[in-house]
Amino acid sequence: MDSMGLGVLVEQLGELKLGELLDTPPPGLDEAIAISKVMQFLEAQEYSMFSRIVFDTAPTGHTLRLLSLPDFLDASIGKILKLRSKIASATSAIKSVFGQEVQQQDAANKLEQLRERMVKVRELFRDTESTEFIIVTIPTVMAISESSRLHSSLQKESVPVRRLIVNQVLPPSTSDCKFCSIKRKDQTRALDMIRTDPELKGLNIIQAPLVDMEIRGVPALNFLGDILWK
User: Fold this and answer.
1) What is the tens place of the pLDDT at every residue in 103-141?
2) Which of 24, 77, 186, 212 could potentially form a cystine with 115 if both were Cys, beta carbons 3.0 to 4.6 Å apart?
3) Cα–Cα distances in Å, from 146 out to 61, 63, 97, 214?
4) Which residues form a coiled coil (predicted)?
């Protein structure tokens, strides 16, 4: 048998362990594990008192990568498990010739659990009854253009979006501040872009004024919340 190279094949198949694949996880796995925590929040009794769970997501590029992770990992983990199944079958058959025991690994079970959780996360992201993605932007031409691209990508991912918050909007004023006047004109131009943009004009637009304090802590959040959701 050894002269046929089967002994070497057994060693090679044995060396290709699923646990080693987990030692060098694919890019984005950390984010995937983080968002899978959402499911634990939803299912845990200790969080049942809360009516909403809010995610403050990263900038546009990272957010889109985060939202596409469930699909990516579902496909990737599926391929890994199929590969492991084929290798395990071949290894088991060859080892039986040599009378060696087949060692069971729980890494496949852990990956399967992660895969199932990712499927639930994907369904949660696209559930119009329980999930809403609110785009937050500022009144500048560049930011509005980026928000338009973000909404287009979210539509392709079937993520529900109904509202757009425009932050740091200068309130009306009768002062003779030249800087404020120029800034207000720039913001008005950006706000007009929203009303004509094919991706954004159908959203419910909410303006958050620029305030003279840092929004931090429960009282400040309540103050801003009363303005936004009145």
Assistant:
1) 445 666 777 777 777 777 778 888 888 889 999 999 999
2) 77
3) 10, 12, 62, 25
4) 104-131
Taking the C-alpha atoms of residue 199 and residue 178, their distance in angstroms, rounded to an integer, is 33
CA 189 – CA 184 distance, rounded (Å)? 9
* Predicted TM-score (pTM) of this structure: 0.71
Q: Which of 144, 121, 158 is nearest to 198 (CA)?
A: 144
- Start-to-end C-alpha separation, the chain: 79
Q: Give the span between the Cα atoms of 39 and 37, in whole angstroms.
A: 5
For the chain, list the strands marked E by DSSP: 135-137, 163-169, 204-209
Residue 71: C-alpha distances to residues 13, 121, 165 (Å): 29, 10, 28
Joined tokens for residue 6: 């089967």
The closest alpha carbon to 183, from 142, 140, 215, belongs to 140
> At 11, which amino acid appears?
E
